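Following up on my earlier thread - several people asked me to post the actual chain instead of describing it. Fair enough. Here it is, all 364 residues.
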Amino acid sequence: MPRSFLRVLVCLFTALFLRESPAAGQQAATPASTEGDFVVKNFQFRSGESLPELRLHYTTLGKPARDAQGRTTNAVLILHGTGGTGQQFLQPIFSGELFGPGQLLDAARYYIILPDGIGHGKSSKPSDGLHAHFPQYDYDDMVAAHHRLTTEGLGVNHLRLVMGTSMGCMHSFVWGETYPDFMDAVMPLACLPVEIAGRNRVWRKMVMDAIRNDPEWKGGEYSSEPQQALRTALDLLLIAGSAPLYMQKTLPTRDAADKYLEDYFKARSAGLDANDLLYQVNASRNYNPSPQLEKITAPVMYINSADDFINPPELGIAEREGKKVKNGRFVLLAISEETRGHGTHTRAAVWKQYLEELLGKAAR
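Reply from S.P.:
Thanks for posting it. Predicted structure:
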């Protein structure tokens, strides 16, 4: 199993199942990046809780540019999914398609910001020490924190583009309606702009219940990870992120499927923390941008794939809600040899032509 595949698995909702290698010459090498931390003092959460210091980790590529009025003209914010980090966008299937010389988000022209959300990566999270006493953050808190990182930490006063995958897709809608004048364009990938309900809520609650009901969780004060809880959670996450067509093609025998599952658990179990996962999934509990979608004024290119278990097209929600966005377009990618279920969102070669269309539409 290639290392690129293991890095993909860091994002719990993607499960991209990438076993094939890209054709030679199709992808550019990843440009140099810089990592840093910004600390927000006395951050107030919507729950009424606070942290004396909230650490927000980030990775950047390129340098900011400003016009004569001091307005940032080339900043791009890219937001990861549940369980992921900003670093996941440095994998070749994403950065190799977008960030190289002459590509759509060429790092020599754009200032690319890849933050870790609250509770993720190297940003403040329960496993740092507070465990189940960590503030109960939600998506609005995560977006507010990234707005402060962008403006106060990095000195960016305008974004050329906000793009997000999965949870980051949902954050993109929140960004668009909370800070409507702050960006030129929005590109949400793989989500629905409504309250999480139906099967989507059911399987998420199953993940959380598996953790909370495991006797070894001990109210979050465990000395060793509750293994049965994590096994159940990973079972559900695997199915949620799966792509049936691709899995049938690459796992054509019983033995191949069994071996894949064994390797998956070995790769995913290492470093996984039950409290972090519980908080990550629970953060979606009061997400619902639907009532305020009309506030989004920037051009929106909204993309889902037809083989996405988490956001199934037969619900008709994306088409219905997309009509509320004044300057938006919804694209449903047909199932093909190139789609990867929910994880299609990180496979930039499949949808980058729509990014090109969006950037052209939102040209200053």
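The domain at 3-200+280-361 is CATH 3.40.50.1820 (Rossmann fold). That should answer part of your original question.
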